[in-house]
Amino acid sequence: MESVLNEQFIQNLRVSDSLKRIAFKVFAGERLFSDEGIHLYEKGEPGFLGMLAELVRTRLNDNNVYFIRNFHIEPTNICINRCKFCSYSHHFSPKKWDLSVEEMLAIVSGQDENMKELHITGAVHPEKDLFYYESLLRKIKSLRPNIHIKALSAVELDYVFKKARVTYEQGLKFLKDAGLDSIPGGGAEIFDEKIRNEICATKVTSEDWLTIHETAHRLGITSNATMLYGHLENYDHRIKHLSLLRDSQDQFGGFNAFIPLKFRNTNNELSGIQETSVIEDMKNYAIARVFLDNFAHLKGYWPMIGKPLAQLSLSFGVDDMDGTINDSTRIYSLAGVSEQNPQMTVSEMKSLIVEANRNPVERDSLYQVIDIGQ
């Protein structure tokens, strides 16, 4: 009976036959091909895409929207790389910093005992090495043994591993023994070497980014995945990126969530590029949710797009709002976004989710439920 009703519903949609065929596949839980993903980007209207994405979101996560109590440490913005899209590094930022170990430990010590996750990522400092970060992780764990440390993007890891002349596996095992629990998804940018040579030529390659994450997954270290969109890439590039992530997840597992990251054009060398519209942002969330059928969670990173649009993204497949942040990240505030002091109380986070007619669920870093409801 349900399949008959679904067929009637799809047939009554005022969209092309090609989009109806895609809708049939999504309703049936079938995987989309790359050309179908591109077709959704080119021809899918926001309402249609949102409907498909919400179907997938509900199938995977019911009406739940997750969040975590977390904070960031960004050790430095002194960087060996000069990525053209970056507003954060010392090459473009009006601010320059290099926190000492003592300053970082003081930040950790000053956090509420209910804090669940520490996110550490920043620039690739030429003088910081594998042993520096190993020591830092151990000191943090000695202060807060139960806090989950999500630290060092594949870009940072690639640099310190090569500097130490160790393999990815050796380096990750070394850091895991020191307290590394998971790694963030930054540095993926877009998986196309021609574009990477244009915007971040000295950064880790697409292949090596994937290899670092896949090695981590084999070692029991989970991670997230990202995609920077809205710069020089086109829809083909976005779907290629999503396809490579989906293939990796099929083979190795280990990705907790996917996070689309919007290019911001303030204080960087790509400032002549117009930023994507809200409609394009929501389309991108929805298509990612439909295409990445083996990713359990899609994150709306509110410090990047602001609280109102993050709330809107909950109608386009997003089921995770990241965390309370506690005014501890500057990566997007330096790029000119509205959230110049990004922080939310637990109460504010829950209210934002409830206002979108979703059920707020406080989680840990591995999406184990801590508390449900208002």
**Beta strand %:** 5-15%
User: How many individual β-strands?
Assistant: 11
For the sheet with most strands, the description reads:
4 strands, mixed
Structural class: alpha/beta
Computed Rg: 20 Å
The dominant shape is: globular
Count of DSSP helices? 15
Main sheet: strand order: 9-1-10-11
Explain what the structure shows.
With 374 residues, the protein is of the alpha/beta class. The protein is built from 15 helices and eleven strands. The strands form three sheets. Strands 9-1-10-11 form a four-stranded mixed beta sheet. It has a four-stranded parallel beta sheet with strand order 5-6-7-8. Helix 5 runs parallel beside helix 6. The longest helix has 18 residues, at 235-252.
Brief digest:
This protein has 374 residues and is an alpha/beta fold. The protein has helices spanning 2-11, 17-27, 34-43, 46-61, 101-109, 130-143, 154-164, 168-178, 193-199, 206-218, 235-252, 278-291, 302-305, 307-313, 346-355; strands at 64-68, 70-73, 117-120, 148-151, 182-183, 222-229, 255-262, 297-298, 320-323, 359-363, 369-372.
What attributes characterize this protein structure?
374 residues, alpha/beta, 4-stranded mixed beta sheet, 4-stranded parallel beta sheet, 11 strands
Please describe the topology of this protein:
Layout (H helix, E strand, L loop, with lengths): L1 H10 L5 H11 L6 H10 L2 H16 L2 E5 L1 E4 L27 H9 L7 E4 L9 H14 L4 E4 L2 H11 L3 H11 L3 E2 L9 H7 L6 H13 L3 E8 L5 H18 L2 E8 L15 H14 L5 E2 L3 H4 L1 H7 L6 E4 L22 H10 L3 E5 L5 E4 L2
Parallel strand pairs: 1-9, 1-10, 2-3, 3-4, 5-6, 6-7, 7-8
Antiparallel strand pairs: 10-11
